[in-house]
Every structure is written in structure tokens, then in C-alpha cells.
């Protein structure tokens, strides 16, 4: 049973207005809920970016109901789901993998149910705005105490498809997960991947970063604990606040300075001794 | 009489910071109010876009006080108004037509009063920021229970000037109302206009869309119930979640893919049998 | 002692998601706090722009805890601070001058303390996200009633370095502080500076505005009380709602129309009588 002032977060690729409509639906059904827009500016249709955001952010939210909507399949038969986590949250959104990494970070999936019960949808369900008509009403009813199982049949959530980092001796190939607002790249690898490729890596060690697509390029960077470890304008590899590897420029945009727009994979190497 | 936790929404063309200043003014005067930023990113000075947003969004908000500000005339003698609706909301903003379509969708205008009583303004009223100095204080006092009539003299709100769809036999001319964040065009017509031009129109029917300004162009599209009715990258005409006609591209931007930037009117036709 | 529903505002250069993570941390520690995002779109690393925003906005917020984060020095030894003001607010952020002009406008600095007590930080403090790990927890604990002095040792906040307006006879040189979302320039001068340069200046007086960097340019403008004093598309100098001088175009963007992108200083003169 939730208390009378439940916490509901919303993360979408809708922009301000459509996300606020969802917030309005939540407040209409659950007037005492504390509603926070976690993001309304996920890149449209970028399921992986949204999943990384939820995985990163939700551990810092109060336990509550968290709506995540990046839904290229709206209007097709993909399921809407609610996923209860070990921490006691319920994650609500499309069953396209978006919610699953976040659930893993909140104690794992306890149970998941499809949002099929018409009692917990708006009376008229459109084909293009399930955020308003299906996800937000479900979240609001959950915030007022509804049990997840009352929403519909139990389902097994689909996983998110994310490429893995590949560590070979002296070389780490990592996917670029997304580029943040500062132009810093978040890489799909963790400190353990660095260690697998290079062994213990002291701060201050130089690394070469190379890429081939959409055009070949490379840069000499430094592995650092903080941005302040390099001069303004200089690039670094560091471990970001969520434990992901990052490629950044101190007080600048790595995407712009290094010419990384559109790059999907980078390779890190120790500079040769020559 | 409103309850102690009233709902106040804000929709402006101010950006985040100036809109938040308005929210701060509301919370200072009405600390118990639940304040939601419905939008802070309406295109600057786009009264029609703002009006369409309010018309679309407010039915999904709790009954409450809704501030809408797109105000090219700030600093001129246009009136600030509060409009009480049949549903029990009060809409607050400039008397330039912005609020009127939304009021019509909330049970109609019950009464409207100019915001003239200095007791419900900030002590110093600037010439350029009526959102902060006039509209937000009025909204906050309304949220704490003030009667609309205490704000000032009764007025008749000015209508919004929107062009109408024109249906001729086999042809529908519709204005483009605005382009949303996904690059989809919202058209100033409804399903009844489609029926007037074409009779019953089954999903899957092809249509030709043509425009002449700012440069001539045309596209073959399909009338569909959902985005998923066409392949990714393919265009469609559909009825959006507010009942307006829309011109979109599945998982893409119609404005970009079809070259519709700056287009203000489109003509829909049945493809000729040739 | 604060009441049980304290007000916490957040102003950052983080974008929506990272700012919402801060809001989530506040709500986790202080569930009853009313949390407002004042801005999540300050230009990255623009300390002066952030300082002007806080100075302008905070007087309109309820007295409370106000977090401001524009922090090019994150990860370096600069101090995190909390500044208590004469009005009873506490401002929380990096000790880089960002908070000081706002504190001056809220009754001045009463006392300031460094955020060093680990009891009021998150258990693990990252090197790159002090907003989440240091500033937000401190703000939340202050919102629940913590005394500023419990956060750490007393400090003297560093001032913000802002260039001054220079008035000579018949000429006023003023820095451009920032360009707002409408393309209007906020200038680092006040009506008193105008008077020092020109004596009493009636509305309607023409002025010449000139600049040399990054490319020479000039424009004839009018000093007006309101935007409506000039025709749509025409430029004006006016006093904005915070008492700063501004350079704007009625219903347009001064930055675009006059070609002012990148201009850091302008000179105002009375047109010569020739």
C-alpha cells in the first residue's frame, strides 16, 4: 500500500506539452501524487537512450511509480506493461526493453503485467497517444494503491538489445550509447572492461581513441578521474557518475571538438611505445 | 470554493526560467497550489499555436486555474482577462483569442472579467512582464478561492481568428496550424471535413497532398488509423489524439521528409484514376 | 525552523534529465518539499548568465532553499557552499560567484558555510556530479530544517566578476550580459547609468548603438518604455522587468535582426545633430 502522497515520474520523448498532458492525467486521477517530469526531451524514438536515462536516474528517485515512454511502436500490437521492482517501484511503459535495465538496477523484476484492464485506461483510447490514454492512467491508479496484478495478465518483459563492449589484449571496442547535452559521449562499457583490456590503468595514462564510421578519425586522450585533470579544451576518458565510461572535453563538447557526430563505435588502445 | 490544494497550470512562450518565475509568484501567494508547467516552449508570439495547445491539453488537466500567455501585445492596451468555464476552470491570460478555443472545449465561457483590481497584481507592474506581475498573481488568488468577478469589470473575450477547412467535391483545402516536435503537421480540419470532401474514407485509401507556397510540392500519402499502418519513413494522413487531421511520417519528420517547412495551406485530393 | 512543506528551487546548466535527478534526490530526502525547476537550460558553463538569472528570479520565489549550479570547476578543489540571506533563504551551489548577486538582492549574505559534513552528502560522492551528490542532499536537509552551520565551516563567498557600465559624457559603454530566448540582449547597466551618460532621457529619444567585435556594426534605436512603443520589427532600448537595460526588437529577435551574435560590448550614443 502506498502512502497518500505517492511519487510519479515521467520520462518521454514527447516535448514539454504532451508530457504535461500526461502529468495532468495523473493529477486528475491521483490529485495527491507528487509528479516530476524526469525528462521530456529524450531523442524521439531513441529507445536505447531512454533506457540508459531511466537506468541512471531512477535509483535517485523516491520509490514510486515511474513512467517511461519512448515508443516507436505506438499503434502496433506491442504490449503496454507495468513492471514491479525489488525496491518497490512500478515502472510503466511500452514493452520494448525501455524499462528493463532500470528494473535490473532497482532490485530486479518481481512481476510484470500487461495494461489491459479498461477500468484503468481513459474511456477513449487513441491510436497515437498511449502516454495519455493508457500509461498515465495506469500510473495514477498505481499511485493511489492499485495492485499491479489488477492491470491485466502476467507477462515476461522483453529485454533491451544493447551491444556489449569487447575487450581484447590492449584494445577495447565500445559502442557509443548516446551524446549528452554537453557533447560528452556515454560509452557502453564500465571500468571492468577497461581493466580487462588494459589491466590496472592509473589516472593520467594516455589512450588513443579511434573510429571508422561515418568517417575515420582518432584522438589522443587521457584517462582521468575528473574533468579538472586536463586543461580546458583537452579531451579525456573518465568514469561518469553512473559508472559508465565517457569521452569528454573539459569545458567543451567532445562531439564537436573531436568530430564525433554520428560515430556509433570507438576503439580505445594504449599508444604504441614508438 | 476551491479546495486547499488547487491546481494551476502555466503555458507560455517564455522558456523555462521566465515561466518558473511565474510559478514562483503563484507559489508565494498560494503555497498549497499544485503548479504544473504545461509548456514553456510555445513558439514565441504564436498565438494560434498556443490556442491549439490549450484547447488540446486543458480537457486532460484537473479542473483548476490555467494560465496561458502568448502575448505579442504586452505593453499595449490589450486587456488581461480571466475566463470562467462551464467545467469550473478559470483561464487567465491576454484577451487576444488565445484562451477562447480552450474555453469552448471546457463547457464554454460562463463569464469573463478584466484583471484590473490592483489588489490582485504585484505591487509594481512592469511594462514587459505581465506574466509575472498581472497574470500569475491573479491565478494564485483565484487558486486560493477568489471570485472571478472580484478581479475587475465583466468583459466579452475576443475570438481567435483561425482559417477554416474548405471542402469541395473531391478536394479539401486545410490550413496548417502548427508543426509539432516530431515534424508532424497538425491541420485545421476534422474527420467531418474529410467526409464532406470525399464521403466515407476507408483506412488504407491513398490521397494526394499538394501545396504551392513557399514552393510548389506534392506527395502521395495514405489515410491510416495509426502510424503503424505505413512502413517506417512513409507518410500518412491520420486523425490525431485531439481529433484534428494530421500529416506525418512514421518514425520520421513529415516537415523534413516531404519538404513542408513554411507551408501554411495544403490541398488533399483523391488520386485520379489515370 | 522551516515548515513541513518547504520550497526548493533548482537552476542548472544540466538539461532536463540531470536536473530532475537532483529533484529526485531532494524529494527522496525531503518528501514534503515543493520542488520547482527554475531552469535546466542555462547555457553550459555560463556562470555570469546563471548569476543574472538567479538575481532576477529569486526575489519572486517563496523564501526557501534555492540551488544554483553552473560549475565549470566541478572536480577541482573549489568549495561547495550554502549562503543564508537576510530574507531567510539559503542558496546552495559552487563558490564561484554564481550565488552572490542573488544573495545581495535577498537582503545580503548573513552567513555562509562550506558543504563538508559527509552526513549531508550522498554516501558515494562522484567527481563529476556534485549537483546530485553534494548540492541536492544539502538543500534537502536544509528544507527539512537543518541549520546552515551544521553543513561545515564558515566561509566568505567569492564575488562574481562582472564588468561595469562606463558612462562618459554623451556615451555609455555597457557589457552584454546574455541573450534571452527571444533574441533580446540584457545589458549590464541600469537607468542610473543612462542618466549619468545622457541626463534625463524622455521615452521616444533616438539612440545610436555601435559595436566593434566580432565585426563592426551599428543601429539606430529608440529608447522606449515598452515594446509596443515601436512598430513590429523595429529596435528599441528599454528597461526590462528586473531593472536592467535591454536591447530588443518588437516581436522579433534583436540578435538576428541587428546581427548581434557574439557581441560582448555595445556603446550607446545620442545621434549627432548633423
What does this structure look like?
- The structure is a homotrimer of 274-residue chains.
- Chain A is α+β, with helices and mostly antiparallel strands and 274 residues long.
- Chain A has two domains: 3-151, Rossmann fold; 166-269, Elongation Factor Tu (Ef-tu), domain 3, CATH 2.40.30.
- Helices cover 21% and strands 28% of the residues of chain A.
- Chain A is built from six helices and 14 strands.
- Chain A has helices at residues 16-29, 47-57, 100-105, 130-143, 191-198, 254-257; strands at residues 7-12, 34-39, 65-69, 80-85, 90-94, 109-114, 166-168, 171-179, 185-187, 206-211, 217-223, 235-239, 245-249, 265-269.
- In chain A, β1 (7-12), α1 (16-29) and β2 form a beta-alpha-beta unit.
- In chain A, α1 packs parallel to α4 (130-143).
- At the A-B interface, α1 of A face β1, β2 and α2 of B.
What are the segments of chain A in which pLDDT stays under 50 over at least 5 consecutive residues?
Answer: none
Basic shape of chain A? elongated
Beta-strand share of residues of chain A: 25-35%
Strand tally of chain A is 14
* Element string of chain A (H = helix, E = strand): EHEHEEEHEHEEEHEEEEHE
Number of helices of chain A: 6
Structural class given helices, strands, pairing of chain A? alpha+beta
Query: Which CATH-level-2 architecture of the largest domain in chain A?
Result: 3-Layer(aba) Sandwich
> How are strands sequenced across the largest beta sheet of chain A?
8-9-13-12-11-10-14
The major pleated sheet of chain A works out as: 7 strands, mixed, barrel
The fold-level CATH name of the largest domain in chain A is Rossmann fold
CATH superfamily membership of the largest domain in chain A: S-adenosyl-l-methionine hydroxide adenosyltransferase, N-terminal
Radius of gyration over C-alpha positions of chain A, nearest whole angstrom: 21 Å
- Pair of chains with the largest interface and how many residues each contributes: A-B, 27 and 30 residues
Name of the CATH first level of the largest domain in chain A: Alpha Beta
Give the mean pLDDT of chain A.
Answer: 92
Number of domains of chain A: 2
What percent of residues of chain A adopt helix (DSSP H or I)?
A: 10-25%
* Assembly annotation: homotrimer
What gap, in angstroms, lies between the N and C termini of chain A?
65 Å
Amino acid at each position: 500500500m502506498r502512502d497518500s502522497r505517492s511519487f510519479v515520474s515521467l520520462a518521454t520523448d514527447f516535448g514539454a506539452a504532451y508530457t504535461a498532458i500526461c502529468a495532468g492525467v495523473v493529477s486528475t486521477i491521483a490529485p495527491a501524487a507528487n509528479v516530476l517530469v524526469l525528462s521530456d526531451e529524450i531523442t524521439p524514438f531513441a529507445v536505447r537512450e531512454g533506457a540508459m536515462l531511466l537506468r541512471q536516474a531512477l535509483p535517485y528517485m523516491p520509490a514510486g511509480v515511474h513512467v517511461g515512454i519512448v515508443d516507436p511502436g505506438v499503434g502496433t500490437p506491442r504490449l503496454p506493461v507495468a513492471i514491479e521492482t525489488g525496491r518497490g517501484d512500478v515502472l510503466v511503459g511500452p514493452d520494448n526493453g525501455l524499462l528493463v535495465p532500470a528494473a535490473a538496477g532497482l532490485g530486479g523484476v518481481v512481476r510484470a503485467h500487461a495494461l489491459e484492464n479498461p477500468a484503468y485506461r481513459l474511456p477513449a483510447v487513441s491510436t497515437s497517444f498511449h502516454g495519455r490514454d493508457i500509461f498515465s492512467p495506469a500510473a495514477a491508479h498505481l499511485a493511489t494503491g492499485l495492485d499491479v496484478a489488477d492491470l491485466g495478465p502476467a507477462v515476461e518483459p522483453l529485454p533491451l538489445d544493447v551491444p556489449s563492449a569487447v575487450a581484447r589484449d590492449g584494445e577495447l571496442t565500445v559502442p557509443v550509447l548516446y551524446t549528452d547535452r554537453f557533447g560528452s559521449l556515454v560509452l557502453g562499457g564500465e571500468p571492468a572492461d577497461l581493466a580487462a583490456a588494459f589491466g590496472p590503468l592509473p589516472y593520467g595514462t594516455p589512450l588513443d581513441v579511434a573510429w571508422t564510421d561515418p568517417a575515420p578519425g582518432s584522438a589522443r586522450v587521457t584517462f582521468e578521474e575528473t574533468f579538472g585533470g586536463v586543461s580546458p579544451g583537452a579531451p579525456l576518458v573518465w568514469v561518469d557518475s553512473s559508472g559508465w565510461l565517457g569521452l569528454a572535453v573539459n569545458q567543451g563538447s567532445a562531439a564537436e571538438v573531436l568530430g564525433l557526430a554520428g560515430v556509433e563505435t570507438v576503439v580505445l588502445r594504449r599508444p604504441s611505445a614508438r
